[in-house]
Every structure is written in C-alpha cells, then in structure tokens.
Amino acid sequence: MKEDFLHYIWLHKKVNVTQLYTTKGEKIEILHFGHYLQTSGPDFFNSKIIIDNQQWAGNIEIHVKSSDWYLHNHQKDENYDNVILHIVWEHDIEVFRKDNSEIPVLELKECVSKTEVVKYENLIKTKTWINCENQITTIDDFIFDNWKERLFFERLERKSNEVLQLLSETKNDWEAVLFCMLAKNFGLNTNGEAFLKIAKSIPFSTIRKERISVENLEALLFGYSNLLEENYEDEYYIKIVSKWEYLQNKYALEKIFLEPLQFYKLRPDNFPTIRLAQLASLYSTIDNVFSKCINLNDKDKFYRLFSFETNNYWKDHYNFDKKNSTKRKLLSRNFIDLIIINTIIPLKFTYDYYIGKDNIESILSLIKQIQPEKNAIINKFNSFKIKANDAFDSQSLLQLKNEYCSKNKCLHCRIGLKLIKN
Questions:
Q1: First CA to last CA across the chain, in angstroms?
Q2: What's the pLDDT tens digit per position in 105-124?
Q3: How far is CA 169 from CA 13, 87, 166, 200, 362, in A?
Q4: How far is the C-alpha of 322 from the C-alpha of 316, rounded, in Å?
C-alpha cells in the first residue's frame, strides 16, 4: 500500500462516509474533508469533523501505518499540533501530540471498497515502461491535450527556477543570464555543465568589453576551458595563447578547476572546440543578444539571427593544430531548435513573469513552430501511437515520463486518475 493512494481515497471521497468510526469505536461525521495542499506539514488543512457529537476543526494527517507518525518525527513538530484525525491504512500503535493528548485514528482498510484497491493495483503494479501503456490511447483527446499543456508549463516552471537562480548570481543582468544559458546549451548534455561553469566564471562585463574581437572571446573561452595547455606550433594557437595570457593579466582572471572537456563519441561538429568557437562568434557578431531574442516570436527569425559563421581558422579545423577539409561551421536548424526550446523559451517565460507580463499565447505559438525532439522517450511514446507533432508535444511527454511515469505518480496524473475512475 502506498500513501499517495490513501491521499487519493480521501481527496476523492472514496469512502463510505456513513460508516466511519475511530479505532476506539467513536462515530465520525465528515463536515469538510479539508484542503489538499501538498506542502510541508499535514496532508489536509482546515478539515471539519464530528467525533461522538464533538465538533473539531483542524488538520488531517495520513500514513500507511500509525507508527509512521513517530518514524517521521511529527511528535516533535509544532506544525502537527493541530491534527484532529490520523488516517491510516493499518493501525499498529497509539499516537500522541506533544501535549500527550491522544489523536483519534481512522483505519481505512475496512472503509474502502476492494474494487478501488484492485483498480489501483492493476494500474500501479503493471511491469511495463509506463503503467498505462496499454490504456493511454483510450484517454479522450480533450483531457490529454489539457494535461499536456499543464505538463509543458510545469516543465517551464522548473526551468524558470534555474533562470531566476542565474539572475540572482549575475545581479539581475539578463544579458549575462542568457550568456550562461546559451553556454550550457552549446555544451549539450556532454559538456553543458562544464560550459556553464566557464560562462559563470567570466565576468560578463569582460565579454562586453572584448566582444569587438572574436579572437579575444575565443581566448577567454578556450583559456578557461583548459584547451590552451599544449605546446602546439600552430600559428593561430600561439596567437590565442598570447591573447589569453594578456587578458588574464589585464583582468586579473583566476583559473577554475574544470574536468577535461569531452570529445569522445561526439560528432566533430559537436566538439567543444567548435561549440566554444561558435559561442565566441555569436557574441562578437550580435550585440544586445538578450534584447533581440526576447522580442522575436518566429522561428524563421531565430534561424536568421543565428546564421553567423565562425572565423576562418575553424572552417578547416576541428581541433587546434590539426587541419581538415574545409567546411563552414554553421549552426544547424536542429541545433537552433534546441536553443529555442532549452534557452529562449525558458528565458522568455521567466522574463515575462519577472516583469508581470502575460505572454503565454506567444510562448505556445513559438514552441508549436518547432519540430519535436528525437530521443528514446519520444520514440517509445510513438510506438504506443502517442505521436509528438511538435516541440510542445515532445516537451510535455518528457515531463510526463520523467516526473510522473518514472516515479509511479499515477494518482497525481490526470491520465492515471481518469483510468482509475473509469
């Protein structure tokens, strides 16, 4: 038995309210089941009940076993002093408040129909990729579409917290926030955290001052990334090393500890050298990047904005001191799509919230212009005939899988709730 099932039973009033008694045999009448807030403290707030003709107002706590009260140390927490009813699946011990007064207990296992338990167990105990994979296509489109929108904004809200953290760290400099976010995006999953650490270590005021020279920006990024530690005779490499040493002295820059950047199993176009060179070119080519991005709402305009090229050295190099055949190192449209999904849209969402602007429809319009992501999770949903038509769908399905399906939170999911109710 899981505690979230007991929450579901109480929240949706799946009990025979005419036959409720405490473990002491006292009659319970429910005037108000309480508010399910899912915050710290008791599970249901502001409940109203009558126990043996005595009316009580307060909170309700729910556990699988009565002894969980002590396991969670509620007896030491003043937030639980106003608990008027302890609801459990199995009563195994008497429970007392801090003042040693006993808390009435309602044992649920005799009050819930076996049908409800079987429906829950049939869903939650299915040993498949997701519990409802054989039933998910039966969900009405209206319910699914509304749930996907909620999932999409849940995912955005989580990303928004990361943006606000960066905003605090950069002393409310939105241009610096975008620089950090873009750096992480350019590093992809493999080098993203390292790129973010590099970006956060370089004062953005230095980026502003040195953006007149792409070589200076490269020197800063390559220097902090520890990619200038070799004794190459490459003329351009020697030039970048010299610029890095000059900038270190000019700005009194301190090196950071950084794990070696990863090249292994990456396509050459995703080598950290190329992505850092592209990031340098972006900021040397485009001024006021934040202002430009925040005002665009069309994917084709983003494609044009990010159509810059790296400097000539990288057209025939993927690494220092190793010449290759000539190829323009442009950002692909797929890569720009990832920038829009993972950087631009979270930034827009957070900035609009920050300034008190309602721009939800614009954000939805932009995300629905982008092609869906291609990964194992989206492919698996496709195999169940749950197709992602655009990035709005794919972002919603990623949130569904990672935050609900993988955590067995079916009773917090509108799909799971609908299936159980049916």
A1: 21
A2: 999 988 888 888 888 887 77
A3: 46, 44, 5, 9, 28
A4: 9
**Residue 123 DSSP SS3:** helix
CB atoms within 10 A of CB 389: 10
Beta bridge partners of 347: none
- Amino acid making up residue 18: T
Closest CA to 93 of 81, 80, 107: 107
Q: Which residues of 172-191 are buried (b: 16+ CB within 10 A; e: fewer)?
A: ebbbbbbbbbbbbbbbbebb
- Taking only Cα atoms into account, the Rg of the chain, rounded to an integer number of angstroms, comes to 28
What is the model's pLDDT at position 352?
94
Contact 222, 311 (CB under 8 A): no
Strands (E), 178-288: none
Rounded Cα–Cα distance for residues 200 and 189 (Å): 17
* pLDDT for residue 310 is more than 90: yes
Instruction: Indicate if the pLDDT at residue 398 is higher than 90.
Output: yes
Is 90 exceeded by the pLDDT of residue 19?
Answer: no
Spatial contact of 279 and 196, defined as CB atoms under 8 Å apart: no
What are the residue ranges spanned by the domains of the chain?
3-112, 153-367
Cα–Cα separations (whole angstroms), residue 394 to 46, 340, 345, 376, 389: 39, 14, 14, 11, 8
